[in-house]
Design a protein that fits this description.
Blueprint (H helix, E strand, L loop, with lengths): L1 H18 L4 H24 L1
Helix pairs in contact: 1-2
């Protein structure tokens, strides 16, 4: 689930970056996506 959220946020970031919309909000989306991905991988490793 977290992986899908990160993918969606990253896609929205790319669309906003290409369309030049949103200013600083676009970079905030990228940071959130990276944090979610890191959390997903750390959580996944501890379960295995």
């Amino acid at each position: 689930m977290l992986l899908w959220i990160a993918i969606i946020i990253a896609v929205l970031w790319l669309l906003g970056f290409i369309g030049n919309i949103g200013g600083g909000f676009i970079h905030l989306l990228l940071v959130i996506a990276v944090i979610v991905l890191i959390f997903h991988f750390l959580r996944g490793r501890s379960r295995a």
